[in-house]
Amino acid sequence: MNIELLRDFCITQKGVTEEFPFDQDTLVFKVMGKMFCLISLSNPNSCNLKCDPEKAVQLREEHPEITGAFHMNKTHWNTVRFDGTLSDMGIFEWIKDSYNLVVAGLPKKLRMELEDLEK
């Protein structure tokens, strides 16, 4: 996985914006204003993804490249390192899971606005 592939995948999801809310190094992808993926521009060897708490633990046990996310709530966020044996397709699946988890948690009004958006 590289940052260009990750960015291309993230921005093709409906309602996604990319921002730098923390600093000029941390690129954050949001759906309807809520974060689902973060990556460092200076060290793009990993990303932080939102994850169901039970699945987060399972993924950490199965993959040494996945750990609790640094500076994030480790119950709900994982860091996925790209330097191991993880496939791009697997990472794309986890990005999509993160996106869907955030969408599911949006207020009904925002979910309806998202449904009305053109891709």
UniProtKB/TrEMBL annotation:
Transmembrane segments: none annotated. InterPro entries: YjbR, YjbR-like_sf, YjbR/MT2646/Rv2570-like. This is MmcQ/YjbR family DNA-binding protein. Keywords: DNA-binding. One of its GO terms (molecular function) is DNA binding.
